[in-house]
Amino acid sequence: MRVSREQVAINRQKILGAASRLFRERGYDAVTVADVMNAAGLTHGGFYGYFKSKDELIVQTLEHLIGQGETGETRLTHYAARYLSGEHRDNIADGCPTAALGAETVRQPPEARAAMAAGLRKQIERLSARSQGDGAYDAAQARRAAIGGWSAMVGAVILARLVDDPALSDEVLSETLAWIEHQDADTSASH
Fold first, then answer.
1. What are the DSSP calls for the chain, one per residue?
2. Domains of the chain
3. 21 burial via Cβ count (<10 Å: 0-12, 13-18, 19+)
4. Local confidence pLDDT in tens for the 191 residues of the chain
5. C-alpha span between 28 and 35 (Å, rounded)
């Protein structure tokens, strides 16, 4: 039985969605092709009709996740408040791919690293545009604030996830948010 082009596209999105959740939740090495196909509700044997290899699936999953990155938040501090929440920290499977997979992607093929780098560039551009758009920063300051703020947020989520002390985990998130808000307030006051 042939599958229509529309069904192929739907199945592909199911596979990418399942892979994105599983990779973020468990990491690349702990997820098999069979796991992904099962989570997508498809048979393992059909995988190679969609992807040449697991490496290709990883790359395309990262590209898929990058396309979902926009939040609609207009200010870095508002975005940071959502990002540095306990809800985001605790929902690894649906959370930020950079915080969940960044360290693992370093050990992946160059194509996966390139996809992650493209996501980083896109995120820096988004956050820079937000900072510059509210008039608080010129272009260079907006880029610096975007890189510094994003680095602080990703690092804070990684650290908050790895500690086994809930109070320390919450403190890492709240203090990082306070630091970002302070940076934003200092820059806004100087303009």
1. -PPPHHHHHHHHHHHHHHHHHHHHHH-STT--HHHHHHHTTS-GGGGGGT-S-HHHHHHHHHHHHHTT------SHHHHHHHHTSHHHHH-GGGS-HHHHHHHHHTTS-HHHHHHHHHHHHHHHHHHHHHHHHTTS--HHHHHHHHHHHHHHHHHHHHHHHH-S-HHHHHHHHHHHHHHHHHHHHHHHHH-
2. 5-65 (1.10.10.60), 71-190 (1.10.357.10)
3. middle
4. 567 889 989 999 999 999 999 999 999 999 999 999 999 999 998 999 999 999 999 999 999 998 776 556 557 788 899 999 999 999 999 999 999 999 999 999 999 999 999 999 999 998 888 777 666 678 898 899 899 999 999 999 999 999 999 999 999 999 999 999 988 766 555 55
5. 11
